[in-house]
Every structure is written in C-alpha cells, then in structure tokens.
Batch of 2 targets.
Target 1
Amino acid sequence: MGHRNRFTSFAALFFIGTGLPLALAGQVLAHEGEHAPAPAPVEIEVTVDKNGYTPSVVEVAKPGKVKLLFKRTSEVGCGERVVFPALGIEKDLPLGIVVAIQVEAKVGERIAFTCGMGMYKGALVVR
Ligand SMILES: [Cu+2]
C-alpha cells in the first residue's frame, strides 16, 4: 500500500516535470503513426544443415519487411556463413543459434542468399 502511494506521488511529480511535454510529443508521434503504420515484419524460420536451406525458397504473400530467422542445426556442410550478395549482407551462423536478418521484399523481387562459398542456394520471393 505505502509503496504504491509513493509510486503514485512520484508518477504525479514526473508527469508535471517532464511527462507533460513528453505526452504532447507522444500524441504528435501517435498521430503521424496513423498515416504511416509500420506493420511488424513477417518472421520465417530457415533451417541450415548438410542439405542446405529449408525452405530453400522462402515465399511471402505480400511485399514488406521480412525477418529471416536462420538456424544452423548441423556441423556437417558449409552453412556457417550466409551471404546476401545483392544486399551486401554477410553473417556467421553459429551452430544452434538463431540469427535474424531483416530484408525488405518488393513485388516480383527475388533476393538470393548463399553459403560463404556459394554452394547452398536460397532465395526470398514475393508471390
Ligand atoms: Cu558452401
């Protein structure tokens, strides 16, 4: 009870001191947000093992932000590095660790990705 009261007083002081300008700024931002909603990226898991990428062709229904969640599940093979040549993205894929790579998928676009030596091939496509 006492703890809660103290928090309430603190919150009141905070609001008077700095909260009000912040609240006003927040409303402006919220208003702008209505015009440009930023939908959460579509998340798709891609497993990397001795056979390459599964799925090897990642299809999304709509253009927009896509977060590819790469997870290497096998020491066998050469999937320890993933490369998106056209985007200049290169990342290590430690065994068993999910590595997220976010890209922007445009209509009709095919974004290729490969292993470090270009043997495993995959792509993100917009249907
Ligand atoms: Cu390779």
Target 2
Amino acid sequence: MSSRVPRAAYLGAVVALAVASGAPRAFAGPTSTDRATHANLPAVGSGVYHGARKAGVTAASVQIGTDPAGDATRSLDGVNASCGDLRSSSIDFSAGAITAHASMATNCDPATDGGWVHGATQLVWLIDTNNDQFIDDALRYYTDGRVTAEVVKISTGERLCSAATSFAPDAGYAASFDPSCIGAPRSFRYATEMRYDSDLAHSPSSDVVTLDLAPDDNLYAGPITRRGYFMFGQDGHSYHFGADAKDHGGLTTRPNLPVVGAALSPSGSGYWEVATDGGIFAFGDASFFGSTGAIHLNRPIVGMASTPSGKGYWLVASDGGIFAYGDAVFYGSTGAIHLNRPIVGMASTPSGKGYWLVASDGGIFAYGDAVFYGSTGAMHLNQPIVGMASTPSGKGYWFVASDGGIFAYGDAAFYGSTGAIHLNKPIVGMASSPSGKGYWFVASDGGVFNYGDAAFDGTPGAIMLFSQPIVAIGAL
Ligand SMILES: [Ca+2]
Ligand SMILES: [Ca+2]
C-alpha cells in the first residue's frame, strides 16, 4: 500500500458518497518560471535594501477563506444541510501551535446536536506537511462520547497526538495542537472537508452524510507559514523580527571567541550559536548535545546545521571537518582532502540523512542522501561564497556571495540578487523562506535583502548593533 495519498484518492476511498468533481489535482500555488542555474543577475522587483527604511513586501499565509453556501449536499437526494455547509476555514500557525478553524452556515453544537452526537459527523483538516500535493496527516474533529480532536497519520491511521477543541455558535469549530506532532514543518498546505450526518430523521444509525469540501475543485490552500527571522551577532547577541519569531535570549557578555554561525530549532522556539572554537550556546528549547570547545581544532568552526528533530546538530570547520552531536550522524567530510578554498557553510537535507558543504569558491561537497546539483567550483567568482540554503524538497540549493550574487541549482529558483548593486557591507549569510519561493540575505551591518515570498520584518538598526557585526540569519 502506498504511503503517498493524493487528495482525490483519499476522498474516493474513504468518502464513498462524495460527489467529488473528479478533476485532476491541480497545484494551488504559483508556478515558477524564472529559474536560473547561474543567476548572478541584477535585482528584479522586490529586492530592496532594508538597511534603514522599510518597504512593502509582505508574504501572507494563503488561507481557504470562504466557501460557497448551499454546496453541502447528499448524493442520494440533493438535500442540503446547513449544519454541514462549510462557509469558512483557516489555520493559524505560530511557533508554538497549529490552530485550525472552520465555520458552517449553521454552527451546530457538537456536544448536543443529533447529527454530531449520534451520527457519522466529522470535520477534517487534511494536511500536506511537505507540499508534495499528497496528504500526510489529518486533524479530525468529531464526537465519540465527548467532543474530540486528534491528528492521525493518513498512511497508517496511527494517532499522532490529541488536539484541544473549542466551539462557539458564532465562531464555529477550532482545534489546536503542537506542531511537533506533524514533524514541525516550516510550511504546509491543507484542505478542509465536512461530513455531516443529515439522515437522522430516517435512521439515526445511518451514515448518510452531506459532504462539503474547501477549497472546492480538489485544491489545497497554502502554504501556511510562520512569520519572522532571527539574526545573530559576532558577540552572541540575537535579534528577532516578525510576529512569530520570539526572543529566546542571547549572550549578554562577550564570548572569548567570536560567534560565527547559528541554527534555529525546528520548532522555531529556540536556537544555537556556535563560536570559532566550536563552543555551543543554546537558547529557548534548543538543547546542548556537545561541542568541540574543549578539544584542539586544526581549523576554526565556520557553520552549523540542526537535524530535523532538533535533537542534534553538526558543526563544520573551515577544512570541512564535521562534528556530529545528538542524533546527527556523520556521513563524511573533507577533513582528509586538500581543499583549494575553505568551507564556509553547510545545509542539511530534509531527512537529516545527509548534508552539503560549500567552499568559498562555490565548490560543493554532498554526503549521505544529499545530491550534487551543480557548483561554481569551475567558474571565476568576483567575490567569495559566504553561505548556502537548501530548498524544502532538498532537491536544490542556493549559494550567496559576499556581493549578494546568488547561484541557484536543482529546484531552487532565482528570485533576485544584489549582484549589480554596490553594498556598503558584505553579505554574510542567507536563509530560504518556508515555502522555498524566496530568500533573505543579511549583510554584516544587519541590512536585509528579501526576495520572492520572503517578507521584510525589520533590521537591528545601527543603535542595537553596538558595532558588532551580524554573522548569521535564520528564518522560521
Ligand atoms: Ca459550503
Ligand atoms: Ca465547498
């Protein structure tokens, strides 16, 4: 049995009464046409330097919004049930919770309404956690002696976690759960279906239901994302921007050696900073799993990456030496080969079963399940590569140079660069947007360039920086 369940197949198998449109699944999001494999090109459109001023790129989670009235009908006789007629649905995603809402034409109390209490009524938010257009998990809201909500894994039926429920006649139904229940994704898509047992007058035990879907036409809404990013200074200060990026602290006294890299906890509720000696500073829900702080390193640490679980991390040195802690596994390193140029950054694959290392000349080294999609290793670069990020699929990556030139490979698309703009301060790092349809660059003075659907949410500003350069950016 396949563990990948397209939405149409799921509806067909489970909801035999559904009169689905039968249309092939269409991808709800925009399609990218501007891919460039070598894209050291001038900025196009949305890339605006945010050193001092703010400008108007705003990315928003794409919600279902409203659904038509009167389309919750039984297949047998066309009877419409207002208690099952979806009128709106949305999901809020914050660093701590995923909260789904739905409202019907008439919000019938699940604790007392006959269709809820005695029937086969079920409200379900179908969640595609990795944006591959296949349903992964389902948030079910139903009555089983009491009003209940839970998240189940579609492929196995396994119950992943419970969800807290609420109901109000005006607002409708809501259910909330911890994002770690579905693997703490950075973004996801969803659809909503309401099955209402509308046949009580004829047979209380009947499973004759009306069905309403939103969006209609077998589409998904999304991506649903959190909003915000963090910056990290060489002195270990942290800076947070955007509604869902909360302050989890930072170093308040200067470390012995400079901070050179950072990684966010997958939950978005913490982060690690790493210094050149491999000393680790953990904040929020990020835990300490070990460091090279007490051993002699041939070369300084230059970057780090978290595992998908957040229960481990890798540190990488400028000679490509890899140090794995917690549930991070060692898959190989360049520590024993001679590099023309130093390693400057790394990124892990979505599975956590591999990683890429990037050198300052754009040479790429892929280990484990990380695939090589191209490099600038054979080209002459005007400025060195300083950072990289992988796409959500793990089937592509970007490099950024200190002049803001961007190089996109695999399924990574080009959304703009600062390659043709004179920068006051060099770019020092990059982060991809949760959907992978955009990215941020950060300069050593904290200036931000945002492209695609990566939204601008602020910069540290000259006063906050205390003349300590920014060394890394991390995005929710
Ligand atoms: Ca409807
Ligand atoms: Ca509908």
